[in-house]
């Protein structure tokens, strides 16, 4: 071997060592318990998605999968950022919502330091993708969206609504609707959809945007009334509820999708193992039954399709945030 070949071999040695190390590591994955960060309190869409998925992953991967609710507020930004900073070894995953792309844009809108970027994550699987629903107390005077809009125009800024935090999924949905309806509502942020739901049930706020799985038990118990859905079509769990597009709000569309992510530097063999496992999870009868009972049907996408979906949905939501502008 001549000097040039020796130098080339020496230069390639670290890369070969890293590749072999990653491959060997992935072969033994997981080597310990897995933490699945949910950047919201219990009771919301991300938590609803995480718990049955974590239980099924435990059976498939042979290690405990611990759901870690990081209820730090900021619309989920705190938990998303924690997952982005975690070691990319597959032992810290993130189950998050469509606000993943919105929150960095909100930081830029307010000239704040950006907590994380979407580019720090790799999509693994989409789990749920429900349209947002507009709900009020069953005792509220509004029977229709038109009732709600007419009252809001008579009393600008006096009708309160709860959300999972500034520029979180539920906040953006309500402001998107408010802009289209030319009304002014009063935003009351909470640390997640669960606390926002508790607030409306207790009369602290008067309206809420939330996922079907979050609202269905309360509607079935006669505590809440759903007025409209932000989707492109009606849904099976609320077949009599019109879409906002049906009612004339053509530019209003919002989905609360929940998906599993790893870090962008996650080795390809580990991503492949997680994709394979999630393919099995999303066919599990127990998982399907749990989601069906909650009113949220499975909307599984594997990583390639999910990556395309995230890119397209993120672009649409970022455009909506820019149109909404700076709101509190």
UniProtKB/TrEMBL annotation:
Signal sequence range: 1-26
Gene3D superfamilies documented for this protein: Bordetella uptake gene, domain 1, Periplasmic binding protein-like II
Keyword Nuclease belongs to the record: no
Family: Belongs to the UPF0065 (bug) family.
The name this protein goes by in its record: Tat pathway signal protein
Protein's organism: Bradyrhizobium iriomotense
Keywords assigned by UniProt, alphabetized: Signal
Stored Pfam families: TctC (PF03401)
């Amino acid at each position: 071997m001549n000097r040039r070949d020796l130098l080339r071999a020496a230069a390639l040695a670290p890369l070969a060592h890293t590749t072999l190390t990653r491959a060997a590591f992935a072969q033994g994955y997981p080597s310990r318990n897995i933490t699945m960060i949910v950047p919201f309190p219990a009771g919301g869409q991300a938590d609803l998605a995480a718990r049955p998925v974590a239980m099924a992953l435990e059976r498939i991967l042979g290690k405990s999968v611990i759901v870690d609710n990081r209820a730090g507020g900021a619309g989920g930004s705190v938990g998303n950022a924690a997952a982005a900073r975690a070691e990319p070894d597959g032992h810290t995953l993130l189950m998050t919502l469509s606000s993943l792309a919105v929150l960095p844009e909100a930081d830029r809108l307010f000239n704040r330091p950006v907590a994380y970027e979407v580019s720090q994550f790799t999509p693994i699987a989409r789990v749920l993708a429900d349209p947002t629903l507009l709900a009020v107390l069953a005792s509220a005077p509004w029977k229709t969206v038109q009732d709600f809009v007419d009252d809001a125009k008579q009393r600008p800024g006096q009708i309160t609504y709860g959300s999972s935090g500034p520029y979180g999924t539920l906040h953006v949905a309500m402001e998107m609707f408010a802009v289209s309806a030319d009304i002014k509502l009063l935003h009351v942020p909470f640390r997640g959809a669960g606390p926002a739901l508790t607030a409306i049930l207790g009369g602290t706020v008067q309206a809420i945007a939330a996922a079907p799985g979050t609202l269905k038990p309360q509607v079935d118990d006669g505590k809440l009334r759903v007025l409209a859905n932000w989707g492109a079509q009606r849904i099976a769990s609320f077949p009599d509820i019109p879409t906002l597009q049906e009612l004339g709000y053509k530019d209003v569309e919002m989905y609360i999708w929940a998906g599993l992510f790893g870090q962008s530097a996650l080795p390809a063999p580990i991503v492949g193992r997680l994709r394979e496992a999630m393919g099995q999870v999303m066919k599990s009868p127990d998982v399907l039954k749990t989601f069906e009972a909650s009113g949220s049907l499975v909307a599984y996408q594997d990583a390639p399709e999910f990556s395309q979906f995230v890119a397209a949905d993120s672009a649409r939501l970022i455009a909506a945030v820019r149109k909404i502008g700076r709101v509190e």
